[in-house]
Write a structure and sequence with these properties.
The chain has 427 residues and is α+β, with helices and mostly antiparallel strands. Among the domains are: 4-154, DNA methylase specificity domains (Adenine-n6-DNA-methyltransferase TaqI, Chain A, domain 2), CATH 3.90.220.20; 231-372, Adenine-n6-DNA-methyltransferase TaqI, Chain A, domain 2 (Alpha-Beta Complex), CATH 3.90.220.20. The chain is built from 10 helices and 28 strands. Strands 2-12-8-10 form a 4-stranded antiparallel β-sheet. A hairpin with a 7-residue loop joins strand 24 (297-300) and strand 25 (308-310). The longest helix has 40 residues, at 157-196. The mean pLDDT is 91.
């Protein structure tokens, strides 16, 4: 495959977004301003920004800054290491305003395929050039000119279309699995809420307990009514949260047998292991539970405390400041959802302490009182909830395999080491 050398500015244009005045930021409105928080840089895709509540913009702006579905964007500010060179595709027309920290990529279509450029900008070749040229301030910046100045080698347009189509097909499968999992997570939360917040678990006749007149009694500890006969005990009566092992960073490797799960890997509802360090051998003093298993549940104990996620792969070791939910399997899904609930979010925030960085004591957290459903109800709950959870884990494993396949193919396709069979690209 023949590759031709270009400066990016010869084959595309890069435009900076609008300078939007803070006085017009709002908590509701018609238009949402794009920020660096809209880049899922670890998965190289668009995400809704949930880090702020004033993302709407109610001031005037020029029409050219209103984004269209399918527009390609890239950040101009590196608010997290690895962000520069990320790309995202706008999912909906007439909703998002391009702000000054976000650049729009516009292809010269006679030279460059739109799907291909999405991966070209996020390739290692371009990312390295952007990183080298970034302004060395506390938060690094790039600019449209620096993006245009990057040197690339690209194949002819027909081959670009094949490459873009293949990579997009992998990403669409990944996106579909993520969408399915989002729905399944919502179902799991709804099931928990229905059974243990509304107390409409099936009674002996299969009807909703509370709605069908099931007896509720006042509990003085919890200051609320709960079903008759349910116990109220501290969490530690059924659950222990075990902290990870204090691995020494000087033993870490860039590749090895085990991945080390640290606080940075525990994100909102997801364990992201793409940025893990490695180690070759399990320390002799490490306890058995440090070796994680598929289905284990983790909780963050530092920083943004109380984040929970499920382990979906093997050969992971648990570092300190991440906790493992340790209990009988009968209670695991119940406690995972209980600790994820809005009520417990407030408890966690109150328990976390430290001015510079919040820390959560697993011992103190497990002193919290909670109601314990009878085992027969938990067995019925687990039958439904575990079916949902197994499907989520299976989908996440498939996402991991597809992501690995895409990431291994990307550099080989971009540098011409492999080409796409024309029959394959038509599938």
């Amino acid at each position: 495959m023949e590759l031709k050398k270009y400066k990016l500015g010869e084959i595309l244009d890069v435009t900076r977004g609008a300078s939007l005045s803070g006085e017009f930021y709002a908590t509701e409105g018609k238009y949402i301003r794009l920020t660096c928080g809209n880049f899922d840089y670890q998965n190289n895709c668009f995400k809704e920004n949930k880090s702020k509540d004033n993302l709407y913009y109610i001031g005037d702006f020029k029409p050219e800054f209103l984004m269209e579905e399918g527009d390609i964007i890239t950040p101009l500010t590196e608010q997290a290491i690895g962000l520069l060179g990320s790309t995202a595709i706008i999912p909906e027309s007439g909703k998002y305003i391009q702000s000054q920290d976000v650049a729009k990529i516009i292809c010269k279509e006679e030279l460059l395929d739109k799907d291909f450029v999405f991966y070209l900008i996020s390739s290692t070749l371009v990312k390295q050039q952007l990183s080298a040229a970034a302004q060395q301030t506390k938060i690094r910046h790039t600019s449209p000119d620096k993006i245009r100045d990057c040197t690339v080698w690209i194949p002819e347009l027909t081959e670009q279309k094949r490459i873009g189509k293949l990579l997009r097909s992998l990403d669409r499968k990944i996106e579909l699995n993520r969408a399915i999992n989002q729905n399944l997570e919502a179902m799991a939360k709804q099931l928990y809420d229905y059974w243990f917040v509304q107390f409409d678990f099936p009674n002996e006749n299969g009807k909703p307990y509370k709605s069908s007149g099931g007896k509720m009694v006042w509990n003085e500890k919890l200051k609320r009514e709960i079903p008759e006969g349910w116990e109220v005990k501290p969490i530690n009566n059924r659950l222990e949260i075990k902290s990870g092992f204090p691995f020494k960073s000087d033993t870490y490797k860039t590749f090895g047998r085990y991945k080390i799960v640290t606080i940075k890997n525990v994100q909102d509802g997801e364990l992201v292991t793409s940025g893990c360090d490695y180690i070759d051998e399990l320390p002799s003093r490490a306890s058995d539970y440090i070796s994680l298993k598929t289905g284990d549940r983790l909780i963050s104990l530092t920083g943004n405390c109380g984040r929970l996620c499920v382990v979906c792969e093997e050969n992971l070791l648990l570092n300190q400041r991440v906790g493992l939910l340790y209990c009988d399997a009968t209670y695991l899904e119940y406690f995972y959802n209980f600790l994820s609930s809005n009520a417990m979010r407030t408890v966690v925030d109150n328990l976390a302490n430290g001015a510079a960085q919040a820390n959560l004591s697993p011992v103190e957290l497990c002193k919290t009182d909670c109601f314990i459903p009878p085992k027969d109800i938990l067995f019925m709950y687990n039958k439904k909830a575990n079916t949902i959870r197994k499907t989520i884990i299976q989908n996440k494993r498939e996402i991991s395999l597809l992501t690995k396949q895409r990431d291994e193919l990307l550099p080989l396709l971009m540098n011409g080491q492999v080409s796409v069979n024309s029959d394959l690209s038509d599938d």
